[in-house]
Design goal:
Layout (H helix, E strand, L loop, with lengths): L1 E6 L7 H10 L5 E6 L14 H4 L8 H10 L2 E7 L6 H20 L11 E8 L3 H19 L2 E2 L10 E4 L10 H14 L2
Parallel strand pairs: 1-2, 1-3, 3-4, 4-5, 4-6
């Protein structure tokens, strides 16, 4: 079994990475982390050329990231709360979603490759609260709607995923409750 972690932060090795890396340390399955901060991800230009090939004509890292998602048994998305979501993460959602959107327009019987793949969510914010919860809800909606994946809820509030607190880099590692919730969520993804 393999779980892929996707860190949606623009900041390399920031709090979103640190909590996921810490949670993966005690996992009994193969894990890999992709940091979008290290990837080139351009916005979709809505050309529609992908409808026949399911491959985007834009030459960046989206294709290799999608391959990793397809090959993984489950995915954990870890992002910081940015008004409400980081732009690179939204561009990734849009690009992969567009591949499926254009194909489904021409072939309503098309089976989306990520259909039903389990995923979990972690959101890191400086203050937590309502804004972090809004980011968690938006992220869940986008992944379910655009990629047709299946959310695996956490066992504690807010159930959609894990809310972690951390502003300065490294501060999230003090949030032991969130780290434990992330570990529990990862364990649920292995069942």
């Amino acid at each position: 079994m393999k779980i892929l972690g996707i860190v949606g932060s623009q900041r390399r090795n920031g709090n979103s990475y640190l909590i996921l890396n810490e949670a993966f340390k005690h996992s009994n399955v193969e894990t890999e982390i992709v940091q979008l901060a290290e990837a080139q991800i351009d916005w979709c230009d809505a050309c529609g050329l992908c409808k026949d090939t399911l491959e985007c004509v834009i030459d960046d890292d989206v294709g290799s990231i999608l391959d990793k998602i397809i090959k993984a048994d489950a995915v954990v998305f870890s992002i910081p709360r940015y008004l409400p979501l980081p732009s690179k993460f939204m561009a990734l959602i849009e690009r992969i979603g567009a591949l499926y959107h254009y194909k489904l327009e021409t072939d309503p019987d098309f089976s989306v490759p990520l259909e039903g793949k389990p995923f979990g969510l972690v959101v890191v914010s400086a203050g937590g609260g309502r804004q972090a919860l809004e980011a968690l809800k938006e992220m869940a909606f986008q992944v379910i709607h655009c990629w047709h994946m299946r959310l695996v809820p956490s066992d504690s509030y807010p159930y959609l995923g894990v809310l972690a607190k951390g502003e300065e880099v490294g501060e999230v590692l003090k949030d032991q409750k969130a780290i434990e919730q992330a570990r529990e969520l990862i364990n649920k993804l292995t069942i």
